[in-house]
């Protein structure tokens, strides 16, 4: 299990510098809510090509690596 978490963390650290300011803000909001066990309902809406999938492909491994 440790190896999988290491791989997930590596993926997150590779992607984080590629997030733009808005993506990074949303990433931080999600991670803070999880860290503080706060409920969060979030709707991410933007035109195609704005990085929604890239953002979620960064958030998901970040959450999974936390167990």
In short:
The chain is mainly alpha-helical and 67 residues long. It contains three helices and no strands.
Strand content: under 5%
Shape: globular
Major β-sheet annotation: none
- Nearest-angstrom radius of gyration? 12 Å
Uncertain regions spanning at least 5 consecutive residues: none
- Count of spatially separate domains: 1
Mean pLDDT: 95
Total of DSSP H or I helical runs spanning 4+ residues: 3
Secondary-structure element sequence? Answer: HHH
Broad structural category: mainly alpha
**Approximate helicity band:** 55-70%
Q: Report the strand count.
A: 0
Distance separating the two termini: 10 Å
Family: Belongs to the helicase family.
InterPro entries: DNA_helicase_pif1-like_DEAD, P-loop_NTPase
Cofactor: Mg(2+)
Domain DNA helicase Pif1-like DEAD-box helicase: 18-66
What can you tell me about this protein's structure?
With 67 residues, the chain is mainly alpha-helical. The chain has one domain. 64% of the residues lie in helices and 0% in strands. It has helices at residues 2-15, 21-35, 52-65. The chain is globular and about 35 Å long. It starts with a helix and ends with a helix. The mean pLDDT is 95.
């Amino acid at each position: 299990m440790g190896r999988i978490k290491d791989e997930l963390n590596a993926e997150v650290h590779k992607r984080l510098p590629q997030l733009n300011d808005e993506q990074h803000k949303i990433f931080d909001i999600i991670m803070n809510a999880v860290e503080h066990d706060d409920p969060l309902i979030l709707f991410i809406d933007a035109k195609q090509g704005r990085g929604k999938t890239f953002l979620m492909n960064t958030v998901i491994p970040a959450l999974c690596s936390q167990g």
